[in-house]
# Entry
Amino acid sequence: MNLRSGVMSAFAAVLFALGIASGALAAEKVKVGVLLPLTGSQAKFGEIEKRSYEMAAEEINAKGGINGSMIELIFEDDTGKPDVGRSAVEKLISRDKVPVITGGYSSSVTAAAAPVAQQLKVPFVICTGSADDVTEKGYDFVFRINPPASEYPKAVESFLKEVAKDVKTVVLLYENSAFGQSSSKSFEKDAEAAGLKIVLKEGYQAGAIDFKPILTKVKAANPDMIYMVSYVMDASLLMRQSKELGINPKLYVGGGAGFTLPEFAKSAGDAADYVYSATLWVDTLPFPGAKQYAENFQKKYGSDTEYHGAEAYAAMYVVADALKRATSASAPTPQAVRDALAKTDMMTAFGPVKFVSYGKKSQQNKLDTYMVQWQKGELEAVWPAKVATKKYVYPTPAWNARK
Amino acid sequence: MDVFLQTLVAGFLKGGLYALIGIGMTLIMGVMGIINLAHGQLMMLAMYVTFVLNTMGVDPYVSLFVAMPLLFLLGVTIQKFLLNPLIRVETILPENQVLMTVGIGMVLTEIVRFAFKSDYKYVTTEYSNRTFSLGNISFSVPLTIAFGIALLFTLAMFWFLLKTDLGRSIRATAQDKDAATLMGVNTGRITVITFGIGSALVAAAGCLLAPVYYIFPDIGGPFTSKAFIITILGGLGSTVGAIFGGVTLGLAESMGATYFGMEYEDIVGLTIFILVLLFLPGGFKRLTKV
# Structure
């Protein structure tokens, strides 16, 4: 009798435990869809962002998740192609029923995915895709954390105005992609407004082996400044071949993207020295958690992160913050999350986030940009002066005058 | 004038490498009548071999002697165990060997991604950025070396095809497989060896490209299509044609880059490709007797 009741009670206890566990499991997940290029030629950045999302989600879950429920990230691979990105967003919304989507790496994929999210009324928090027009269409379900491409060179403009006053002529080299064209067009406009003369403007196809043909023309134009919008390995080849040809402008400036990555300096070697770059983030910026994020990333994955990762990391916190405010008794609905996102006003490792309307833009976060310079293989923040870690070296020493 | 000459030099140097990539594909095309759509991916593998050896301190040019035999063996294995068995299988698609090479290319890419991640790798040597100049024209040292070695391999290939028994058997198989079989050529073995040689040649191109370029798993695709264009330009199966095709593509890209704008680099190459298809079907082979 004793034995029997013992077995019965044990059985009941197991049932009870199972009941709690299954009930709890059902309630304790909040799905978040993440659209990133995980294969294809952009997979490297997709990977940095994926890891940053995962790191942020783990930190948030460890601190109690979304009011007690855990965040579950559902990654969809856009392969860097707009049509794949579109169907990935459709899948996240219709099959996985996520209340919010984030991610969006390349400009063209983001531009294709945003209208889908808008049409199906699920909020899309963009972390990287930077083509200007994405937030110029009045979509009320689309939010963007990173500045649009046209604002990347803001810091460069102020540097030119206050330090490099003798720069008069500029050569503009850009990758022939949505991002490259958007950035170069706006730089061109700003440069002309600042009284600079664009003596040569050349696009190129990403992944080229040999940049000598355009660099020969650059050398013939002999400009004061060379402004390049390139991803990491094109950037490295451009600098290596500029060194080969001995092109000596007063300033080499990279417009965002590749010039800030550690791979750029490692693969270009000494050809990377003194190159300036506009950037959206460096880990030395005085934002809470910035340094810590970079250190934790390095510790956890054994490789360095950069501004793309910081964007993703911050995006996860912004989404989690909105979800917390949108979740009351019931699971969060897309509409409630959208309304919560619109009221976002918080500090992240990437800087302050608040979605505002200005100019033609709506629901766009407004941020400063920065100038960094490679000095002896280290990336130093040099401009604006208030965040500088080292003083800038200007003008750039000629190749044959370097040790 | 300087700009023109510099463009010419850049085009020629790049064309030499392209020729080496194209010859491998055209050999395989000639003997087996299929386009090997994993060609660029085989080159990618050779580049990773170069990279791994370089981390151990081996010079990229020395790694030629490791990468070429390795890729030869891989090519032999692919032909023997993956492509030859397909000949015996009846399917509704006549070109199922070509489809197989597409699959092989994907598998190779993903295996490499699994092993090395998507990170960019690079092989830096002290001569990676070195140049010498003649007058006002600068020559990149590694590209010039690459051009020289590519030339050497091409000449060796010619000697092999024209003067050796094995080379003659390969040519016989390319010209008429049935007749070659009747004359006592073991055509099954010839296809296996040819795929091996084609892979080894593109491996050489990979090793030569490594010091001046960078390496990532998806690098194969663009080079497969370049090799394809070169093969069509030269005329399917023609070794001389592949050299012409390679140099033409290199020159066209450089000239296009200088005089139309570098964003049209690929367009110039592809326009020539279409023009050749329209007005010279059969490629440059038609203009020569070889």
Summary: The longest strand of chain B covers residues 131-134. Chain B has eleven helices and two strands.
